[in-house]
Design a protein that fits this description.
Elements (H helix, E strand, L loop, with lengths): L11 H11 L6 E4 L2 E4 L5 E7 L1 E3 L8 E7 L3 H9 L2 H11 L11 E6 L6 E6 L5 E2 L8 H15 L6 H4 L9 H23 L5 H12 L1 H6 L6 E3 L8 E3 L8 E3 L6 E3 L2 H11 L2 H20 L7 H10 L1 H14 L4 H20 L10
Antiparallel strand pairs: 1-4, 2-3, 3-5, 5-7, 6-7, 8-10, 9-12, 10-11
Helix pairs in contact: 4-9, 4-10, 6-7, 6-12, 7-13, 9-10, 9-11, 9-12, 10-11, 12-13
Length: 360
Amino acid sequence: MKLISDPHKIDPNWLTEALHQSGALPDGRVLSAPWKQIGTGKMGDNVRFELEYEGAPDSAPRSVVAKLPATDPTSRANAAGNGSYWKEVCFYRELASRLPIRTPHCHCALIDSTNTDFIILMEDMSPSEPGDQIEGCSVQTAELALREVAKLHGPLWNRDEVAQLEWVSQGIEQESMIVQIMLSQHWWPGILERFGEHMSPEQSALGERFVNSYSTWAQSYDGPRTLVHVDYRLENVLLAGDSDGVPISVVDWGSPARSGALTDVSYFLGAGLLTEQRREHERALVEAYRQELQGFGVSLSAEEAWNQYRRYALHGVLITVAGAMMSGADPRGDRMFIAMIQRHLQHALDLDSAEFLPNA
């Protein structure tokens, strides 16, 4: 199929071909497809097409969602440079349909030879909607999210296959050194300039120590590894709430890595719950996740799970700092990143995650 990433140029004929090829439209054709932009994604844009057909079966989707390169030039350049678009296309092509974690069904995933232009046409999960990172979520939603991400981690636990996927970050020393240079010389100074007034002295001091020892911290983990989402946060899950939709589905697969499984758990709880709520419930939630893993034959003790969880509280600092500095600034985005950096730094302080840094 021809790659078209401008929603103004995606016409009924293109959509008909895509849905024919995916098997979602065995007969008939799309007659019209008005669209509108949806979501608050930072590294890519999402649009929903409402579909009218001629001669289509009742099973044909009434709408589809296209994920496209970010309109914001800073976000687009950084996402393309990091290979985020290529990685997400590869995930949907190679893994999504093989895993029990619920993701939108992919109708097509196309990318150009430079990895800068792409389209992923997928199932519309409405009435499900992304969570709100600023407002946070309930304990029940957090448990649902952790049990769901266990369906990613469990099937690929310590599997050699993950180490062989070229589009998955393997956490090698060269990668971590590059990240540390960016953190210490560019991203963290930028965060202090933009948001420093919103951090306590203790939070700023921990952030400073972390960014200056990131590479050693990243290389020091020697436990079991699996495929992790990396950016597993409240706005990257779609929630049905009280509707009849799918209870939860997971999106934004542009930064997968081979790492400790509690990376995703700690990151989600660190900013998905408000701080007092997180303090009260995190042990029980980590245990619920651990029990879900056991259903995939994974043996992980409660002590091991808790120590991984404590260690990876610092992952939230990394992703928040990098995400804020690699995406274009906007008022809503700034409020979100302020909430996230405060919560993740406090999370790491509460759990004494500095114990896992060198010279602790």
